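Let's practice the habit of predicting before peeking. Look at the sequence and jot down your guess about where helices and strands might fall. Then scroll down.
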Amino acid sequence: MAPDSPAARLDQLLGAVRAGFPLAPAAHPAGYRCSCDRVGCPAPAQHPVSFAWQTQATTDPEQLARWLSRDPQANFITATGRAHDVLDVPAEAGVLALARLTELGVGGPVAAVGADRYLFFTATRGTPIDEDEWWPSALDSTPDTMSEHPGLRWHCRGSYTLLPPAALPDGSEVRWLRGPEQPLPDPLRVLDVLTDACTEVGAVAEEQWLIG
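Done guessing? Here is the structure:
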């Protein structure tokens, strides 16, 4: 089975579904542009197709197969804050952090977004009883703001990230470095390591990390 074949893509996406990651269809590259045809799209091939992505997001394998049969080139996003959160850092910091987490015996799924970003999938804080502790995040649901937050981003309730395998307009891809079958680690433990790595490479956001 070729690694980029439709069957191989479906198999990878089903692995995420089996891990409980809710998926929804996203735009894909159309040449060097985004399939959404929006002039000046701020996040080409990295955003959901529908504004109703939070309602669409599902772990139903039959629905996933229907979406892929309708648009075999579709990328997919995963809605965060339900089954998992995602800590999203510049690749330079991600390389350092991944090595340190491995040394510490901290596992968990990790993906690379081209050569630019690393995505660390963690357990979710979900919906705390105390609403003052609820951290809403709309980072990627308003992709126009992504460039404003170059450091560490925390994707929780109300946000999303691309899910491997996904193609990007520059010819790069979103790929797993450690797959979704890995148990999800505690987010605060991963956050400590990522914050230190971001500080070392000078990639700290204004508030050190952005939660929403």
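How did you do? The first helix runs from residue 6 to 18.
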